[in-house]
Amino acid sequence: MLLLNASGCLDPLGAPWIVEALDAVVTKTVTPEPREGNPPVRIAETETGMLNAIGLANPGRTRFLAETLPRLRELGRPLWVSVGGFSAEDYAQTCAALSGVTIELNLSCPNVEEAPESAAEIVSACRQVTDALIYAKLSPASSDVAALVRAVEGAGADGVSLVNTIRGLALDERLVPRLARAVGGYSGAPLKPVALAAVYAARAASELPIVGMGGVRSGRDVLELVACGATHVALGTVLFSDPDAVARVRLELNEEVARAGFASVKDAFCTAHRAVAVVDN
């Protein structure tokens, strides 16, 4: 099992000590053209989580390939590049330019307009231009997560990442939206039950590798995602308040595995499914 960072929740070049604790590093989302992102205010804390409406701010594909990617390779960790776009062609062109990395297709950003093509169509377009591993990052807002997972698997995805943030809104004391664009992506601890349900549904529908994420703050959270079917786990919002969370969570995970009576974390894989199967019988 790998521990990763969620895309957009870590500046690897600015925090190499966090990178050292990770098994792989996920970049911020790269788009074909440079993006300044949405106007401020773009981040707001809530009582129980965080809202963000960054808007995929990034230097664009050309500068990323020429300047950022070579520096990231020097960190000595496997790289996952988050790829975004506004059409299937956008995604495919970036994927075609990448090599020696795992690709995570950001198919579910709540802060920008989505491509008109379906997730499966985008995955298919990317599959045709690269032999790299492709993970499809999906939203929990889908009415049928299982069907979506089966669709991207059929289109050639090697794995799925879920969940991305869900749309949320917070008001200030004047009853005015705290974000400049009002609505943003909601993340943090309250997202964990949503993530568990999505990972559970995805595992019931497919044998693909799954990166589980959403509300992960502790070793117990990691273990629960694994029990629901995650093969890897990503830490996101917690890294803003606790930059050393990865090392802490890894230690806690070992303790939680032993406390649950397992010899290793692998032994906990899909235990939630097995328990339900016993009840159903």
Outline the structure in words.
The structure is a single chain. The chain has 281 residues and is an alpha/beta fold. It has one domain: TIM Barrel (Alpha-Beta Barrel). The protein is built from ten helices and twelve strands. The chain has an eight-stranded parallel β-sheet. Helix 3 packs parallel to helix 4, helix 5 (145-154) crosses helix 6 and helix 7 crosses helix 9 (245-259).
> What is the class in the CATH system?
Alpha Beta
Q: Looking at CATH, which topology would you report? A: TIM Barrel
Share of helix, binned: 25-40%
Count of DSSP E strands? 12
Count of domain modules: 1
Following the backbone from N to C, one meets helices and strands in this order, namely: EHEEEHEHEHEHEEEHEHEHHH
Overall average pLDDT? 95
Q: In which order are the strands of the major sheet placed? A: 1-12-11-8-7-6-5-2
Number of helices: 10
Class from helix and strand fractions = alpha/beta
> Which shape, going by the Cα principal axes?
globular
Radius of gyration: 18 Å
Which superfamily, in CATH terms, is the homologous superfamily?
Aldolase class I
Content of β-strand: 15-25%
If classified by CATH, what would the architecture be?
Answer: Alpha-Beta Barrel
Low confidence ranges: none
CA(first)-CA(last) distance? 30 Å
Note the main sheet: 8 strands, parallel
